[in-house]
Records
---
Amino acid sequence: MANAVVLVSCPDQPGIVAAVADLVHLHGGNIVDLQQHTDRVDHTFFQRVEVELDTFDLARDEFVVALGPIARRYAMNLQVRFTDEIPRVAVLASREPHCLHDLLNRWRTGELKVDVRAVIANHPDHAEMASWYGVPYHHLPVQAGEREAQEAAVRDLLRAEGVELIVLARYMQILSAEFCAEYVGQIINIHHSFLPAFMGAKPYHQAHDRGVKIIGVTAHYATADLDDGPIIEQDVVRVSHRDDVEALRAKGRDLEVAVLARAVRAQVEHRVLVCGRRTVVFD
Amino acid sequence: MANAVVLVSCPDQPGIVAAVADLVHLHGGNIVDLQQHTDRVDHTFFQRVEVELDTFDLARDEFVVALGPIARRYAMNLQVRFTDEIPRVAVLASREPHCLHDLLNRWRTGELKVDVRAVIANHPDHAEMASWYGVPYHHLPVQAGEREAQEAAVRDLLRAEGVELIVLARYMQILSAEFCAEYVGQIINIHHSFLPAFMGAKPYHQAHDRGVKIIGVTAHYATADLDDGPIIEQDVVRVSHRDDVEALRAKGRDLEVAVLARAVRAQVEHRVLVCGRRTVVFD
Amino acid sequence: MANAVVLVSCPDQPGIVAAVADLVHLHGGNIVDLQQHTDRVDHTFFQRVEVELDTFDLARDEFVVALGPIARRYAMNLQVRFTDEIPRVAVLASREPHCLHDLLNRWRTGELKVDVRAVIANHPDHAEMASWYGVPYHHLPVQAGEREAQEAAVRDLLRAEGVELIVLARYMQILSAEFCAEYVGQIINIHHSFLPAFMGAKPYHQAHDRGVKIIGVTAHYATADLDDGPIIEQDVVRVSHRDDVEALRAKGRDLEVAVLARAVRAQVEHRVLVCGRRTVVFD
Amino acid sequence: MANAVVLVSCPDQPGIVAAVADLVHLHGGNIVDLQQHTDRVDHTFFQRVEVELDTFDLARDEFVVALGPIARRYAMNLQVRFTDEIPRVAVLASREPHCLHDLLNRWRTGELKVDVRAVIANHPDHAEMASWYGVPYHHLPVQAGEREAQEAAVRDLLRAEGVELIVLARYMQILSAEFCAEYVGQIINIHHSFLPAFMGAKPYHQAHDRGVKIIGVTAHYATADLDDGPIIEQDVVRVSHRDDVEALRAKGRDLEVAVLARAVRAQVEHRVLVCGRRTVVFD
């Protein structure tokens, strides 16, 4: 049976844990996972409470209603999710296939609990792969001077499919501020550098020129400020003088795949809360 | 001002989070950190709650008394600690100085909040170092056939100093089952292998013979079953065919120092709970 | 244009580097990569020399002939490879698809320079995947009491395809000593534990029971001594009390895929030399 | 008995390996370690050859003379070192003691084969520690507007002691371009960020503000371009939303200590060659 996940962020003050826990207990629920964090810089309270519903005497919508007065009292930013709700996802790609392929594979094996509604790419290259996975493939090329038209077509498609989560799987097109604003906290990008190092183009070339001994990649929410959105997950790999740019790219590909998958999983499991430019990612 | 830390483990059942949180809230306390874990194999509930006491209307002993009925109702294993209580610690060492030296240094710089009451060693080598740090040094050698007498002397000293935490900083003597039983969950050992690999003597030689590509070390609670106590922390480092036994030892030393310090810090911050042969270590 | 790779192991003695380098230089070759290691325990010399052939005045077979006297003088174990020779590979699998899938994908994208001649599995599950990748799929089930017959069929197939490298991609059948002896240094297995910890069955269960804080996987040559062949590559990932057996399995899968791919790549690039139970893996 | 270490960098061309190996062999030397790298971007050849001298028939100065014609023929940047030559080192520090303390400890235990001639600090804080280690401590404070005078005093002291390697152990003063030019490749700095991320002041604050999930540190050669010298070694540690700036600092301290020690050891073992802005660090 499904669990409910209650995500809370609000100004810190006493009584929040008790208020939510009491309500759950009053209605026969069992808290099976609770993580809490208080940010002492911003004085903000964050909480993720996972509740078994077997013995719960509230229906899902009743639970949301019952939480309303608590949310208002503490000025909460409140989300209530259920673990059997599978989010509708679109994966956007350009030329590089590895992140797209990995996500489709994790979806196919059931490791990633998402409903992939569409693969959208500005290149035709991955149609066959998408077809093998049984996912609709939309080739929306960017014509010279027609970037806006292409983005409009992408957004139409996302709306038509009711997409709730957009994964940029090495999608090399810049999104407009309007697009980012429509999907705040719903667009995850993988950047092939250890941000904030090597922002901008060709990070593996930059890393090679600088002679770093470790390279990294970054999964972050896309925002209007390019490469500057809140970071969800990062990872690194050791390199040496033996690694030329092509070797960095190859090592980086494995990292990109792993880090993007971890970020998407965290999002899908409702474990990420945004705190300004930072994130709280519960384990 | 100090915080209280409430550590709970008990059979899992609904209402535990609410019961503790309510009591805290009722008396004006503010929960600043709460971590909870339910072990689904053993159906055991674990919780660490850290409470600011500024506005709390219970004295420390009153808080413990007030928690009593809750503890009984849920059959809790309950500990209540306060962050300004500094534990009395003894460090036991043999020939190798690195872990001892590192602990004394972290204590001297204030990074490790402990009260080092005694350094006990079965060798005289570290007397000068202990003296420089201003810590009493007790040389209790093990005479042939007199292991029990030496252990008795060690235990007398620990009792005389009221020691609450014993750190085995590469102490190469085996402790009796009685000793381990007297200090359950209060003796931390650093083992120079990635347990359970290479149990027993000369793990770096064993690791070299086996040709592993990564070596590790393990901090664990000492129990009557040698090298088999619950693991608190582990870490690893990559090695290669270029590393002979001496190189493994050198790499291992840095790991031992780091992992033992992290384990002691977790213990001192009341972040470790034992779950059979496993541990719950909250962040 | 292809390079030659000269792999040497022999008893250590002066003059080996000079002897090989002289021969290369005499015939107009350019050494573009040279790595050397002397094992001081076994007094064994190891060397990998990569030579550009553009300006080399010996044909491939002439080079091998010319190295003959040097090899005899120093009692060398000598291999000469060329980087445009693509090894014929068979991938053996059982139920778990992830390592198989990853290898086929790396082959398809050209990242892994191998010629996958056959996928052999004792289960029918992966036929469709193999078909999509365009690789022959051989379902050779193990009937009760017929293990030997199945192995004979596998070996017939390997011989028929002229297979030079056998990758056990989570193949859960034990190979006979004869099979291992026929393909010494040519069978790479991925073991889902950080060997020598948790040898034998169900390593993720064992790791969970023991409460380790880090899990790992091991790629090694298969030998008649189960789980005891020379280790090529290992890697680890941090886990916590939050990870149940299923979570360990999921984290382990990503590791298995990465470590097996790295080991196969090292083998294919002629960077692995065996030294008793240990390996020398040049970067 | 000591070994010789021959370090070579020069434009890539055929015959270099053979030329050096021949000379060694001709005079009865045994190559016990040889590492070579060809940078294909800069077309530069790098080599480190370690030679046992037991049976070598050239004296040390004769070896250097004998290498002269080879060096000229290939336009080599050539260094010849001997493993029993212990470099004279000065450690420069400011307020933070951890890197200084660790280096002195590694020197005292014999792990780091250096001759620490002087500790120089612009604060008086570490005099007692230096005294315990038996190392001369020079307090050279920076008076307002007198930075140049202080640097002149530092350089006088370095010259008087014949210092060959300067370790900046969290020394927070900027060195002049002249100072850097006098000691090219002889000044190692530890920077408390994962360069090039968070250059400049307060990197742990910057890292916290940006919300990175991993922090790192960098050991590099000091050059006139601040924080931009060739990188010798880096390492990283995972952090989370739970880590405030003080926690980042504490995790960073352990990293700084480890990475600086590794970089100094690589330098002392003659394993680092500079390649423009990059380094070749042989294992």
---
Amino acid sequence: MSVKHLGKQTVRLSYPPSVAAAACVVGKKEGQGPLREWFDYISEDSYFGEKTWEKAESTMLRQCFALACDKAKVPISTVDCLFAGDLLNQCAGSNFALRDSGRPVFGLYGACSTMAESLSLAALAIDGGFADITAAMTSSHFCSVERQFRFPLEYGGVRTPTAQWTVTGAGAVVLTAEGAGPYITHVTAGKIVDAGITDANNMGAAMAPAAYDTIKTHFEDTGRNPDYYDAIVTGDLGAVGHGIVKELFRKDGIELGPLYIDCGMLIYNTEAQDVHAGGSGCGCSAAVLCGHLLHNMTENRWPRLLFCGTGALMSPTSSQQGESIPGICHAVALEMQRGC
Amino acid sequence: MSVKHLGKQTVRLSYPPSVAAAACVVGKKEGQGPLREWFDYISEDSYFGEKTWEKAESTMLRQCFALACDKAKVPISTVDCLFAGDLLNQCAGSNFALRDSGRPVFGLYGACSTMAESLSLAALAIDGGFADITAAMTSSHFCSVERQFRFPLEYGGVRTPTAQWTVTGAGAVVLTAEGAGPYITHVTAGKIVDAGITDANNMGAAMAPAAYDTIKTHFEDTGRNPDYYDAIVTGDLGAVGHGIVKELFRKDGIELGPLYIDCGMLIYNTEAQDVHAGGSGCGCSAAVLCGHLLHNMTENRWPRLLFCGTGALMSPTSSQQGESIPGICHAVALEMQRGC
């Protein structure tokens, strides 16, 4: 067994890469929420100057990546490779965003777990000695996602209480081999977990068992316990899924307590903004990580963070064919101490 | 700069992982083509025992992965992580195929370049010390792809001369840190190249400039020239794209000659099987690599092979919105000599 390999699913990075900079760009509604001060750019225009929502999403992600490179003082041309994906069919959001980047692209599909998946692979690429600078990014746009997965907005469908609101937002992280941190110290790659949920308006419940599985495995593999971290953050389980994860750990005799939070519950003022169970989408965990969470790390309020991207792997076609909704969760440990 | 990093886009693996085994499963039409003897399993039933084409695709890929593990004498439970993707919306083909695998999954979207993309990352995961055993896989199914990207089959649309035929096929490769080869010695990750082609029935032309860019960069980065290889193989450019790549190299004064071949031109008897410009789809390069190409390597007819997966990164929505078709190509050098 390789020395970097811990337990069943976890990798301990031998020389943890550093977050050189991160950027987040969001839409107007997100900019009205409680995390507004941490976003780098809030667009008043949901079209981002484009003529379609899909192009708007690409433009938002392109801006976000450029901003992350600016903040890191890293020209795009020096980034060795990019890891990116999104929710749109054929990942058109990220592919068109990066069309003119001139850098090698590894396209990913991890549904709403993409920020964690891309961050994992971008970190491994550096720690493996394959790259000195990498970038991880993703996006989602309320309008492009609604019409692709649910109904045209004009239809005015009524939302169920368990429904979540897809975040219009993008996040991008630039990683470097050297730097002042936060450092990516461990990656726990998730397996697909299917709890048999078939209600596409209850994604939190569909993803929660995968989040539980990955977080539990992370503790087993590393020998850490929840108290090791200052915050354990899932991507977009919302209030329903967040409650299920707490309950699953409670059955194991583990009380996660207030250190366990969810990006989907943080990004909106849930009641005042009428978002039902909370935010969702690739952009949810991406924008919260790249703003609020990393800020709390660099200001040393949370020197140790476990970031757990959660994704629901169904498609409209699989749901129409009666399939349940499989979930996945990838966990990335970020720490202010490199510890190697 | 890392010692593994060569030139602009290439990685030289320090201790090249070995192909422990590969498997390919195809449909009836592919089984009637010139490569029939190299396929592990040819299904007479295009539904693979399922009720929908999407489920058929998942079942085909699941069978294929299980077969590759059997051939490698590696229980699925011992594979450290899986890299997989496909063409279906939200990569439902591979996600449902791997739902019950119990192994960590990194989901990819590289369109028809996915076999090369997954093979690249699966090799890097081992060489980086993160895994001892990994697997790379992908699939496509003529019927699921036609209705998603073009028309319902019942519509009976007439095909243009430049159109290609989506392969019903899957390929899976199991890689191990130790083994007798073939070895993955270099990876050249591709950037997105857009030549401005807008005709979704001329994918070969859309992807050819990306193939040219990656292959040329591979030679520059490694200092090799085309004669170093016994075969240079693109994924699914078909006759049109294959001709464009040859022409682009000819302008540089390089005559690729008969060592340059394309999986899309190999898999069918183009005229007798009425496939116009040739085969396409993720399953095209996957099934040809995992059968014909790797056989030729292990029988030492082609000890050095450059495998270049090619993908067209448009979506039906991007095409409807007037976008051109960006291409991407990832190249993987496979050699019978480990050379380290």
